[in-house]
Amino acid sequence: MSYEPPIPPQELPTDVVDTLGDYSPELLRHIARYAEELAEYQEREARLAENEENNQVEERPEDLPDDVPSKATITVKEINDNRYYYWQWREGDRVLSKYKGPVDSDN
């Protein structure tokens, strides 16, 4: 670990860099966790919206449960430092999820 402060990415606005510099390490870790979850959520929303727009009918995966629609995608959620696969799909304005199984740590 370096004794020099990290260099922020050029894409990060200066006001964000300045604001983050005033926060405690604990708060920064909470922000980092939230930012990662928010990025995953926004990516998932974009994928779901794109799938709805394309209205593609894909073959139903063999491991897809009967109560999960074929338009569902797989996402990873981290809970208590463990990672799990979930099926996720949109019904109207809601995003629904169903547990699939743990993420294999060998991957």
From TrEMBL:
Residues 55-104 form the DUF6788 domain. Residues 45-72 are annotated as: Disordered. InterPro entries: DUF6788. Pfam families: DUF6788. This is DUF6788 domain-containing protein.
